[in-house]
Automatic annotation (TrEMBL):
Its EC number is 1.14.11.8. This is Trimethyllysine dioxygenase, mitochondrial. The keyword Magnesium does not apply. Keywords: Carnitine biosynthesis, Dioxygenase, Iron, Metal-binding, Oxidoreductase. GO terms for cellular component: mitochondrion. It comes from the Eukaryota. Coiled coil: none annotated. It catalyses: N(6),N(6),N(6)-trimethyl-L-lysine + 2-oxoglutarate + O2 = (3S)-3-hydroxy-N(6),N(6),N(6)-trimethyl-L-lysine + succinate + CO2. The lineage of its organism: Eukaryota, Metazoa, Chordata, Craniata, Vertebrata. The gene is TMLHE. Residues 40-116 form the Gamma-butyrobetaine hydroxylase-like N-terminal domain. GO terms for molecular function: iron ion binding; trimethyllysine dioxygenase activity.
Length: 406
């Protein structure tokens, strides 16, 4: 990154010589060449082999000088509303691995070339936001992902970091040897995130007593699904701890929804597209003496980042899916075909991971990615757990230096 360009360009010269290439000087090993080209509406930078375009307003808006940006609070001081939309720099230079722009009025902005590359659209669109390992049961099992253990998890940041790394990669992670109490379960969850309070409470404990108007509170089998798809923003993480089970059955089913979505994308992009665009409603309607709820969440089955086509959220809950009345009839037909294809992928036995939750084993599930279900059961089965806020668990991971969302 030892690029030096001493020349500065003035507008007149720029018109006469629209494209210019800096002399690159390599000092030592890691030299990357840089070339800047000024267009009417953007600055084009070629650096490390990638051509990138930066809008001039964007460049002024992203100035990192002390006057424009408070680097201790990481907040912008520039009033974006006051930037001339036709702004262009008066002088442009590349000096010591930095792009230096002098704006009309004299303000100088300096950006390191690596910062520009790191923050460019062109680089972002080529990389995924989340590093993930998509899995079927063979892939997950042969990875032999270790569980964290309670004592270490609670006292050692490195253990927590490894746990979070696995959680981010696979969308599930386990802590073993946790005391079989609500309090200890809460302690474990609060080590990495904040509990998200919902109509079910903060920490909840449930059994098959029909205390709430939902099939979770029964002994019935539950097919794979994501929870709280009826929220405007479904809960990010679900935590379960089986405190007691005196009976048979009740195994937990886990399926990587993103693995299935990628199969659909590869086999029929048009079906993937429908799942990513057709808005679908989910409802939670509970009318009992003690609980009155009517929640509705609307969104596609697959939410996809528009700049890199990466899936980041799946809403799939056939129990809670509401009436479809926002889709024209021909699209309804095509949507059911697409939904069937996704369902077929989600139901492939080779994609199913079955685990028996036992006292001591706490599971964290990425509820935006990994579907859960359960086998029917007999006897007393008591589960406790909670939902966690997604922003906070990801923030913890980032603060520990993990590449969670770049
Ligand atoms: C987990 N806990 C038992 C508290 C709530 C269960 C909610 C079940 C609901 N059908 C959904 O899928 O969101
Ligand atoms: O009973 C279980 O194992 C899980 C039930 C369920 O899907 C839920 O509580 O969200
Ligand atoms: Fe559930």
């Amino acid at each position: 990154m030892f690029v030096r360009l001493s020349a500065t360009l003035r507008p007149a010269l720029r018109r006469a010589q629209p494209s210019w290439r800096p002399r690159t000087q390599s000092r030592g090993c890691a030299a990357k060449s840089a070339a800047v080209h000024l267009h009417q509406d953007c600055l084009e930078l070629s650096y490390g082999g990638t051509p990138m375009r930066f809008n001039y307003v964007w460049l002024r808006d992203h100035c990192r000088s002390a006057e424009s940006f408070n680097s201790s609070t990481h907040q912008r001081n520039v009033d974006t509303g006051s930037i001339e939309l036709s702004i262009r720099p008066d002088r442009t230079a590349v000096e010591d691995g930095h792009l230096v722009l002098t704006w009309p009025g004299g303000h100088v902005s300096k950006y390191s070339l690596s910062w520009l590359a790191e923050n460019s659209y062109e680089v972002s669109k080529q990389r995924t936001v989340h590093q993930r390992i998509l899995w079927n049961s063979d892939i997950y099992e042969s990875a032999n992902v270790p569980s964290a253990t309670y004592d270490k998890f609670m006292s050692c940041d490195d253990e927590m970091k490894k746990f979070l790394q696995n959680y981010l990669l696979y969308g599930i992670a386990f802590v073993d040897e946790v005391p079989a109490t609500v309090e200890a379960t809460q302690e474990v969850t609060q080590r990495v995130s904040l509990i998200r309070e919902t109509t079910y409470g903060g920490m909840w404990c449930f059994t098959s007593d029909f205390s709430r108007g939902d099939s979770a509170y029964s002994q019935l089998a539950l097919d794979r699904h994501t929870d709280t798809s009826y929220f405007q923003e479904p809960c990010g993480i679900q935590v379960f701890h089986c405190l007691k089970h005196e009976g048979t059955g009740g195994r937990t089913l886990l399926v990587d929804g993103f693995y299935a979505a990628e199969q659909v994308r590869q086999k029929s992009p048009e079906n993937f597209e429908l799942l990513a665009t057709v808005p679908i409603r989910h409802d939670y309607i509970e009318k009992s003496e003690s609980h009155q709820n009517h929640m509705t969440g609307i969104g596609p089955v697959l939410s996809v980042y528009p700049w890199n086509n990466e899936v980041y959220l799946m809403r799939y809950n056939n129990y809670d899916r509401g009436v479809i009345n926002t889709v024209p009839h021909d699209a309804v037909r095509r949507w059911y075909v697409a939904h069937r294809e996704l369902t077929t992928e989600l139901r492939r036995p080779e994609n199913e991971l079955w685990v028996k939750l036992t006292p001591g084993k706490v599971i964290f599930i990425d509820n935006w990615r990994v579907l859960h279900g359960r086998e029917s059961f007999t006897g007393l089965r008591q589960l406790c757990g909670c939902y966690l806020t997604r922003d906070d668990i990801i923030s913890t991971a980032r603060c520990l230096g993990l590449p969670a969302l770049s």
